[in-house]
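Re: your question from the hallway

Yes, I did run it. Sequences:
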Amino acid sequence: MKRGPSVFNLVSLTLGFAFLYLPIVLLVVWSFNASRLVTVWGGFSTRWYAAVFQNDQLMQAAWITVRVGLISATLATVLGTLAAVALTRHGRFRGRTLFSGMIYAPLVMPEVIMGLSLLLLFVALQVDRGFVTVTLAHTTLTMAYVAVVVQSRLATFDRSLEEAARDLGATSTRAFWQVTLPNIFPAILAGWMLAFTLSLDDLVIASFTSGPGATTLPMRIYSQVRLGVSPEINAVCTLLIGAVTVGVIIWSLASKWRARASA
Amino acid sequence: MNRPLPRPSALIPYVWLGLFFAFPFLLVLRLSLSDVALAIPPYSPQIDWEKGIDGIREFLGGLDFEMYDRMRGDHLYVNAYLTSLLFAAQGTIMALLVGYPMAYAMARCRPGTRNLLLMLVILPFWTSFLIRVYAWVGILKPEGLLNAALGVIGLPPIDLLYTPASVQIGLVYSYLPFMVLPLYAVLEKMDHTLLEAASDLGAPPWRSFWQVTFPISLPGVVAGCLLCFIPMVGEFVIPDLLGGPGSLMIGRSIWTEFFSNRDWPFASAVAIALLVTLIVPILLYQRQQARALEAGR
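Structure:
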């Protein structure tokens, strides 16, 4: 807008972002507090970080969570991209309404319902709950998000490029691999990132579909939080926040660099 | 109309979603009509496949609506149900009141600033949701940061933690980005010459807002509200960590029935009741998304 932000706009932005970031900032500060109490500053300390790395249960849970995330995000990206292509490129086909319904519903479906229903499926199929079932559940949850991200890129992507490839004699499969896919690749990558972070963060669906030996990090954090204040958790969170921030910075630098290279 | 069958590449995600998303709802429905049993899995009747048709007939005869009658008769559940709807409605309205000015202000910034602010809205998604909610415990508890701050400016302390208010704060806090993003998406695309035209015709700013900007942003308002309201109704983590006995929400009671009481049929009945309530908003959301996709083409 030409007039630029007014005082009211600036105030609402400041308050809004303060609200969003206050708890995150506090967690980071508390993680360096030598005292167990959040209201007492006992001096700067990294003892909770040392405690995290000595906590085998937490480290093991983190490792399981990362593996579940990597596998489920990759599966979800393949499935979600296929679904997005079907929704934007295949025109009308039988059962399309049901298909698009099943794509959008997981985005808003309360996690408790999805967790319960997936658990009942695994019980009915007589599959032991554990690593595999959590991974399958997370794939189902996150493929919808990938589909929506990729689909919005496909919807704005110039179809005449695909048509040109077809006119030049490429099969539709080849046109997809050589023209469409490179063009929608940033969206696919963004979808994978989103799927991965959603999987890392999920407590409810993992709690329903996981079994002994496959406790994920959010499940471990939840049980510690329930037991009371544990400053170690603040340290875990700060590490997660740090990892995410570094990832985002690398990501934005890379996309800036790419934009400059292609300009 | 004779429509073609889905292509093989579409069939893979189709079958996947059918098996892992749609079909399990039938299992929830079937379980909600069953009874608790001391067995593994902990419910009856089971289909006895060896008896063939008779086994299925016996199984169907064993289903009943007992769980639903129990839920209707138990004021705890009726209350949890109403509380969930009320909290979600209030939380959605508050998120709209906080989120709209934010999205509006973001859309008025320069493009460079806009992208930075957009990043800042998305960034909290990438930090653990559980932990961010948990951080509010440290802020709201009696000896927490809020009361320390109130003490400094000489105000009496307030006890917010484990009250409905703390659940509301948690809901608005967690779902605010889901409100801001769709609002920002419509406000950013708005044609600003319309506002200039309104002001040239003598409309004061508040009037051009209500008669021009707000109606244009309505699809974003609807999308944002649905995106907040539907998951808020079934929210588990927020009422569990921030809520007290007075703020039992339905998502938490499904969890308790399932994990603590091991009453799978009852948990399923509560889940079905929740799903039936949310089916209309969910269908609205789907229609809106599909329409947005068509318009984007």
